Amino acid sequence: MIARDGVAGTSHRKVAAEAEVPLGAMTYYFDGMDALLHEAFTRFATSVSAQFVRRMEAATDAQAARDAVVAIILEDVFRDDRDLVLSHELYTLAAREPRFRSITSAWMARSREALELHFDPETTRMLDALIEGVSIHRALDAEPRDPREVELAVARITRALDR
Q1: Of 35, 79, 120, 130, which has the highest C-beta tally within 10 A?
Q2: Greatest CA span in the chain, whole angstroms?
Q3: For 106-118, what is the mean pLDDT?
Q4: What is the domain count for the chain?
């Protein structure tokens, strides 16, 4: 619902109709739209970061960690338009409403923790910024980008690790 209609277009009534549950059930379980949105975005952020963690935990060496970051960017974190839209809806909501920043802060912390399994904190911050920046470009670019750009960017950011 949020991916299709945006935060502004989502209501208890619409969610109840989509879920085929009585409207009263929605208002019983969620004390207002903020509670519903908070739960929906928490679940979304947790599921995205869980895949991120799985990729980084599976990496066994520096090159596998680089490959994992590339796969996170190109395959996992924002694998389709729905996830891209949801992430940007969450970012916009968190920028406007400080009470939603706990979701984005927790998401970023989990992402950095996973990256720090293989990279130092400074490199981790750069990779995290790359992941976020690429997601914005993927969402907004009119033309598809060459995936090799991501591989090159990850290699350049992590090059110092080879010295």
Answers
A1: 130
A2: 62
A3: 95
A4: 1
